[in-house]
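[worker-b] picked up task from shared queue
[worker-b] task type: protein-ligand structure
[worker-b] ligand name resolved to zinc ion; SMILES cross-checked against name lookup, match
[worker-b] sequence length check passed
[worker-b] input payload:
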Amino acid sequence: MTDWVGREEGPGGDRASVREAFSLLAHDIRLDIVLALLENWAAVCTEPQSYSDLMDAVGMRDSGKFNYHLDKLRGVYVEQVEDGYVPTASAVALYRTVLAHRPTETTTEAGELDEPCPHCGGTLVEQYERSFFTLDCTDCDSWELLTYVFPRNGLRDRTGRERYRAVESRADYHTGLARTGQCPFCAGPVTFHFDPEDVEGTPPLVGMTCDICTWHVDVTLLTPLRFVPRVAAALLDLGIEPPVIEADTIVEMTGEIRSEEPFRVALDVTSEAGTVTVVADDDLVVQSVEVTVE
Ligand SMILES: [Zn+2]
Ligand SMILES: [Zn+2]
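[worker-b] inference finished, payload out:
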């Protein structure tokens, strides 16, 4: 089986165990047990709950029945440790995800922003759909300024520029982590894709895909590379500072695949002060950084 990002076995490979995990929660007593463990959860700062405390917390007297349901949850949502019971990482992750994406009063309609596009002074339009925040300019060419999955909760107290900066910052740091070969969501291995058309596009792009979960992004080559200290230092020499969307000091970015064996991709970032040339391999490990001053 090959999915849309070309993985041989996607998350669907574990369908039976995923199905079992979700179906376990379709029972009041089991749900009460999981929530009793999660509601005051603060990671290692939380003491495990003893068998009897947990039984009290869910208001049960029938030990046989309680034990039957606790046993079903064991390993999937509940872990037995020396002093009692704690939620598993999977239970905590699910709980956090529900909190982060729960419905709120946040406006999710497409709307025009009050501030102008930092590139061209045009009109900025934001949209939130299918958990993706998108920022577009009505006057810049084709390329969306920003689109990334963002928890609805994060939009609640932010407006206008604060919103897109929050989304950009989240996307940037995730991408910076992914450059080290680690998925920001599941810690699985990340594969990089260098499609010559994308690399030579405006702006030059690299694809990043997690081999385990469904995380995938196409980002400018600059976004992950700027987390490498010597690249950041070289950019700063030419007055280029993140966030990238508002880096109006960037005049031009061009990319090129310099060689296939060994694989080398080059990125030129030009400001009025000069050009930074970064050469990286197929793992986005930086091979060289050169600064040419105008
Ligand atoms: Zn614009
Ligand atoms: Zn992943």
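[worker-b] attaching auto-annotations
[worker-b] The domain at 11-101 is CATH 1.10.10.10 (Arc Repressor Mutant, subunit A).
[worker-b] releasing lock
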